[in-house]
Amino acid sequence: MAKFTTTIHPPSGFSLGLKELWQYRELFYFFTWRDIKVKYKQTYLGILWALLQPLGMMLIFTFLFSKTWKIDTTPVQYPIFVLAGLILWNLFSASVSHAGESMIKNANIISKIYFPRLIIPCSSILVAFFDFLMGLLIFIVFCIVYQQPVDWSAIIYFPAGIILVLLAAFGTGTFLAALNVKYRDFRYTIPFLLQFLFFASQVIYPLQVVQQTWLKYILAINPVNAAIELFRYPLSGYPIDGNIIMIGTASTFIICFIGVYYFRKTEAFFADLA
Fold it and tell me: What is the pLDDT, as a whole number, of residue 13?
């Protein structure tokens, strides 16, 4: 009987390795479903936590900013305005947080068997996307309850905003995941980074309230702002700020390229360092 030898070579150049990812596509389901079950295991409310978290934050921000500081978001009612921003922000935050630590948490698997390492941070993002779908359900219910008009353009702009957030989270998450393998200090910077980006995102305020043009464009580098701008457009009907979208989209693709490039460049050493 003929014997076959499979030799695994490190990537010779920059590539996503899509063909190899497709060959191991079952692992996406395995890792994602495992993490979902672990996340809600032995909890009384289970998956309801994915609904209660954005709902609770929306109530807090609505009380503080619409009643106390009077942020004007007309014609979008403030609870809908802030919930639209929150569900996208939570998708980005959870994706980056989970993906950033995913390689360390799966170190025992990485050191034993071979599979495309990119699957691990990607599956972490899929877990966050599952929670996002629960938040999106709450958002739709609140739009109905508050009788918030939603333009038919939502068919285009809602997915566009979601895709932009996923790409930004993918790039940031893979970059931090690779850094965390070699430099464990970075795992402690992730919460600080996310906290800073939250206040730099137009979640609880519209970016239009920023009077300084230069500051608005600096904030537009945060890709979450462009995603929220797209997502809220069918609600407000106001013209989209093209500069915010262009800057945020360019920032997203740059972050995505840097993150994947660094991950693919260093993944050959993960088994030794994890």
Answer: 53
